[in-house]
Amino acid sequence: MPKFSFSAHPYLLGFDALERMLESSAKINNDGYPPYNIEQLSEDNFRIILAVAGFAIADLSVVVEGPQLKVRGEQKQNGAEFLHQGIAARPFTRVFVLADRIETIGSKFENGLLIVDLQRITVNQPIHQIKIN
């Protein structure tokens, strides 16, 4: 089955950058870790919940770069010697492509879950760091 391309469709002109961004995001998010949910709380409010068991707030970052929300995690090595290690401790980057006018309005860390709240607004903001509460 041939791959769909925005540039090949006569009614979708100028979407090359979007296509490259989606392909890049798909490559980064390929392994499915960490697992996440996306909830629609209302017509204009959304929530992304990532299961980040074993991570501390200091190990996580949430950054908006243009139309992308990037969540990164990297645990500090504590030098423990494991007899069995079933809890994933590998670094990750999870990228979400945000539609126009979707703004990150806050994030919090509860019970091993990173919760990022989003809202549809009328003004776009530049790149900024989101503080995890």
Describe the structure using short key phrases.
133 residues, mainly beta, Immunoglobulin-like, 2 domains, four-stranded antiparallel β-sheet, 8 strands, 38% strand
Structure description:
The mean pLDDT is 83. The protein is 10% helix and 38% strand. The protein has one helix spanning 16-28; strands at 36-40, 45-51, 60-65, 68-73, 92-97, 102-110, 113-120, 128-130. The chain folds into 2 domains: 1-30, no CATH class; 33-78 and 85-130, Immunoglobulin-like. With 133 residues, it is mainly beta. It has a 4-stranded antiparallel β-sheet with strand order 1-2-7-6, with no helix packed on it. The protein has a 4-stranded antiparallel β-sheet with strand order 5-4-3-8. The protein contains 1 helix and 8 strands, in the order αββββββββ.
Distance N to C terminus: 46 Å
DSSP E strands, number: 8
CATH topology of the largest domain: Immunoglobulin-like
What would CATH call the class of the largest domain? Mainly Beta
**Stretches with pLDDT under 50, minimum 5 residues:** none
SSE order, one letter for each helix or strand:
HEEEEEEEE
Widest beta sheet: strand line-up: 1-2-7-6
Structural class: mainly beta
The biggest sheet, with number of strands, parallel, antiparallel or mixed sense and barrel status, is: 4 strands, antiparallel
**Cα-atom Rg, whole angstroms?**
17 Å
Q: What portion of residues belong to β-strands?
A: 35-45%
Range of helix content: under 10%
Backbone shape? globular
Figure out the total of helices: 1
Whole-number average pLDDT? 83
Using the 3D structure, state the CATH architecture of the largest domain.
Sandwich
Number of domains: 2
